[in-house]
């Protein structure tokens, strides 16, 4: 059975869906039957065993690299809840000590805000739950941005040269940076670096409007009323789901030592630095 040669371990809301779409098109890369296999971070799947996991990969005669993209693996330490299965780095390294690793990072405050809206879109949070309350209710919103802590846990098992770190603001969001980011990715995976995937300019996981998110959570009666709202009024401030600037600033201060530690570990400055 095919064993993975690489994993994209995260982080959530940092461009992993875009990267997965591009990498999966490469004729020399075999990927999971789904983008996120969640083998190492979900207890029920992990208990199915390595043989089950390796059956999930699609490979062919030209395949030179095999892997999958599960951004939840990044959160290997943090606040445990009854549904979390922390410690993915330990389990990954025990099974596959020679992996190449892909890591996408983003301004941790913007990442948390994006994840907040993603949870509303997915139905896991009500739009009536304020951002600060959501951070308490769903610890992962904060934990995924503890970049220094998470990277240290992974570096306990893999040397830094095994990681290719792509920074969302520099490598993924700007269209003119994407070709070079993909060349470096393909080089890291050991496949043809001249391959050019299609549709790399297409946005993935686009956020819904605040109106649409509120509509998803509305009661049947309110939904019927909202569906009558003219298109031109659906961007009215009355529908806004806001994240207070004070909450952003407080989270930035909380993340400051994490970003500083990340920069120390990587030996480079991040474009978002440690500004509060």
Description:
The chain has 276 residues and is of the alpha/beta class. It folds into 2 domains: 6-206 and 244-266, Rossmann fold (3-Layer(aba) Sandwich), CATH 3.40.50.300; 208-243. 41% of the residues lie in helices and 9% in strands. It has 13 helices and 5 strands. It has helices at residues 16-24, 43-46, 50-54, 88-95, 108-121, 131-137, 140-143, 147-155, 168-172, 178-189, 210-217, 220-226, 245-266, and strands at residues 6-10, 29-31, 65-69, 100-105, 163-167. It has a 5-stranded parallel beta sheet. It is globular, with a radius of gyration of 20 Å. The termini are far apart.
What order do the helices and strands come in, and which of them pair?
Layout: E1 6-10, H1 16-24, E2 29-31, H2 43-46, H3 50-54, E3 65-69, H4 88-95, E4 100-105, H5 108-121, H6 131-137, H7 140-143, H8 147-155, E5 163-167, H9 168-172, H10 178-189, H11 210-217, H12 220-226, H13 245-266
Parallel strand pairs: 1-3, 1-4, 2-3, 4-5
Supply database-style keywords.
41% helix; Rossmann fold; five-stranded parallel β-sheet; alpha/beta; 276 residues; globular
Average pLDDT level: 94
Number of strands: 5
CATH superfamily placement of the largest domain: P-loop containing nucleotide triphosphate hydrolases
Low-confidence stretches: none
What is the domain tally? 2
Q: Which architecture of the largest domain does the CATH hierarchy give at level 2?
A: 3-Layer(aba) Sandwich
Shape label: globular
Listing every helix as H and every strand as E from the N terminus to the C terminus, the arrangement reads EHEHHEHEHHHHEHHHHH
- Computed over alpha carbons, the radius of gyration is 20 Å
Query: Which structural class best describes the helix and strand composition?
Result: alpha/beta
């Amino acid at each position: 059975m095919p064993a993975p040669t690489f994993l994209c371990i995260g982080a959530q809301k940092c461009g992993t869906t875009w990267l997965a779409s591009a990498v999966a098109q490469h004729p020399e890369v075999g990927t999971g039957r789904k983008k996120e296999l969640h083998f190492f971070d979900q207890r029920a799947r992990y208990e199915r065993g390595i043989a089950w996991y390796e059956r999930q990969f699609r490979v062919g005669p030209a395949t030179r690299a095999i892997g999958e993209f599960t951004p939840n693996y990044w959160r290997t330490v943090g606040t445990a809840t009854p549904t979390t299965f922390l410690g993915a780095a330990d389990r990954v390294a025990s099974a596959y000590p020679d992996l190449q690793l892909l890591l996408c990072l983003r301004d941790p405050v913007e990442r948390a805000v994006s994840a907040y809206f993603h949870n509303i879109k997915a139905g896991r949070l009500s739009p009536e739950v304020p951002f600060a309350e959501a951070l308490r209710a769903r610890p992962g919103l904060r934990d995924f941005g503890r970049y220094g802590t998470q990277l240290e846990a992974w570096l306990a098992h893999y040397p830094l040269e095994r990681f290719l770190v792509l920074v969302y603001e520099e490598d993924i969001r700007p269209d003119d940076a994407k070709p070079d980011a993909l060349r470096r990715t393909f080089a890291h995976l050991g496949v043809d670096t001249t391959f050019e995937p299609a549709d790399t300019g297409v946005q993935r996981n686009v956020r819904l409007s605040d109106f649409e998110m509120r509509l998803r959570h509305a009661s049947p009666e309110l939904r019927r009323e909202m569906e009558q709202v003219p298109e031109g009024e659906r961007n009215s401030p009355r529908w806004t789901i806001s994240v207070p600037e004070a909450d952003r600033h407080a989270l930035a201060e909380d993340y400051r030592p994490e970003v500083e530690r990340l920069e120390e570990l990587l030996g480079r400055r991040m474009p978002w630095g440690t500004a509060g």
